[in-house]
Amino acid sequence: MGAGHQFSEIFFMLALPFFTKRFGIKKVLLLGLITAAIRYGFFVYGGAEEYFTYALLFLGILLHGVSYDFYYVTAYIYVDKKAPVHMRTAAQGLITLCCQGFGSLLGYRLGGVMMEKMFAYKEPINGLTFNWAGMWGFGAIMIAVIAVLFMIFFRESDKEITAIQVDDRDVALKQGEVK
User: Fold this and answer.
1) Do the beta carbons of residue 127 and residue 143 sit within 8 Å?
2) Model confidence pTM above 0.85
3) pLDDT tens digit string along 4-47?
4) Are strands 120-125 and 128-130 parallel, antiparallel or unpaired?
């Protein structure tokens, strides 16, 4: 099943330019959030016991492509479009640091504490030590709330962020070239 999300991701990566041109950045980002919430919902009810519940797991894996590409990749594209040319690398580095650096570290630390406090069983139930359905449901609700907040507060603008005009003399002064 590992290849399922890769094929999905390739397909939606190729479809991304069409969707962003047709629907705009905000709707594509929102679709990424909504599909992530649906994906987690599928994991709540998915399982290997029956064909239907197994199909939910498979659909959740397939939704990885649209949720990842339409949120993370589109966010990188948005930052690239909005940042001044001379700051694009720094802006991309900052978003990577926030999402995959500090965000991952904080998420892993808080996630571990949350799992122990909210979703750990005192005694194993059917061989499980955690309430995985509760954990996926909590994630789905969090993403749904974020999607609503995003819908309310994000304003898409055609304006590019303009670069700050810096006098060459100011740059030379800071570098110690002018006295």
Assistant:
1) no
2) no
3) 668 888 899 999 999 999 999 999 999 999 999 999 999 999 98
4) antiparallel
Distance, in Å, from the CA atom of 38 to the CA atom of 82, rounded to the nearest integer, reads 29
Residue 46 corresponds to which tokens in the numbers above? 């998915």
SS3 content of the chain, % helix, strand, coil (to 5): 80, 5, 15
CA 50/CA 39 separation, integer angstroms: 18
Annotate 28-81 with DSSP letters as a single string.
Answer: HHHHHHHHHHHHHHHHHH--SSSHHHHHHHHHHHHHHHHHHIIIIIHHHHHHHH
Residues in the chain, overall count = 179
Q: Which of these, 96, 140, 135, 97, lies nearest to 113 by C-alpha position?
A: 135
User: Buried b / exposed e across 5-37, counting CB within 10 Å, b at 16+?
Assistant: beebbeebeeebeebbeeeebbbbbbbbbbbbb
**Which amino acid makes up residue 81?**
K
User: What domains lie within the chain, and their CATH numbers?
Assistant: 2-174 (1.20.1250.20)
Mean pLDDT value of segment 134-141: 95
Query: Residue 37 and residue 60: Cα distance in Å, rounded?
Result: 10
Cβ-proximal residues to 63 (8 Å cutoff; 6+ apart), any chain: 8, 35, 36, 38, 39, 42
